[in-house]
Amino acid sequence: MAKHLVLVGGGHAHMVTLANLRKFIERGHKVTVLGPSPYHYYSGMGPGMLSGLYTPEEIRFATRHVVERQGGDFTLGRAARVDADDRAIRLESGETLTYDVASFNTGSYVPHAIVKDLTEDIFAVKPIERLMEAQKRILELVSLKKTTVGIIGGGPAAAEVAGNLWRLTRDHGRYRPRIQIFSGEKFMARFPGRVRKKAIHSLTSRQIEILEQGFVKKVSSREIVMQSGRRYDVDLIILALGIKPSPIFEESGLPTGPDGGLLVNRYLQSPHYPEIFGGGDCIYFQDKPLDKVGVYAVRENPTLYGNLMGSLEGKDLQPFDPGGDYLLIFNMGDGTGILYRKWLTLDGRLAFIIKDYIDRRFMGKFQAIK
Ligand SMILES: Cc1cc2nc3c(=O)[nH]c(=O)nc-3n(C[C@H](O)[C@H](O)[C@H](O)COP(=O)(O)OP(=O)(O)OC[C@H]3O[C@@H](n4cnc5c(N)ncnc54)[C@H](O)[C@@H]3O)c2cc1C
Asked: In ligand 1, which atom is closest to the CA atom of 280?
């Protein structure tokens, strides 16, 4: 019997399902995809877009086009809450979508509790679209005056954003900005010493300052205040503080993990509501908490696709295997990268060439299904 599948968010874990949407429709099912934009931006290439290395068009998936081309419905909007007992998704617009099976890939957000007043010159690294606005504003500022940019965060997103901001303002603008990273106590703390050293060297050799002087307490208009009470004047702030799963599950009273992510079992399925599935940064994988990296979202694709079809058609579900170690490559913004996988570290041009190749291949595969 025909059923209604609703995909909430066209993120990285839904790519294979989106590419195969026609198969659901050929079997008589109705598919609706809900998203706040006709496009989904690939975070792995976001810092490269900030520097101008990639255009926004090169790093986005044409979600609406892909859905409609295959006979699905695309609803522009944002899920606000889920009434799982009624199998209904309430949208911010007030509309409701009902489903037989729903899958969530709504990602994560940068918490901004430290921000006192939201001014126009404070930008978070997620959603990736915000980096386009940051780019425009930085270019305006550096054409007018000597500017200080404060990047708050001590992980790879902060490193990549700093390096790529350097590239943007090397290639454009009248004045070179001062770039300061407020990294908490230790920059790139969750990586081995050899990776930290390479990242620190790459940035500081370009006069990017890394301040490992403790945590930021609050951020207000043009000022960063440390927990120690010390204050720094800045012109623009980028928040790269780490991320939290999409808040809709907690707000809906759905079972979640300790981080607030949708609790899912080994079938990427809510243990309490078997018709709800999820993937990517917004889930909490019950068997083993997963790092919030795109790599897991990508690995979840075939399982999610198979299990959504299986669930609609009453077939057996397959467990997700998160696999072993994963490869990370950071785009440092000067044409070099830092590649890291367990024991292996490689930095320099080759590391960036490998990243660029992997990212472009991924985009080419899913960007716009003909
Ligand atoms: C600057 C930066 C660089 C990164 N680089 C890498 C990297 O090189 N490699 C790596 O593995 N990881 C990287 N990451 C981590 C990576 O971003 C995440 O792990 C990845 O984006 C997770 O994918 P996702 O599809 O779950 O979420 P997202 O990419 O956040 O996608 C979620 C989608 O859901 C939509 N959505 C959100 N809320 C709603 C709602 N309420 N209703 C409907 N739709 C909604 C959004 O519009 C978006 O399209 C990086 C992160 C950042 C910030």
From this structure: 26
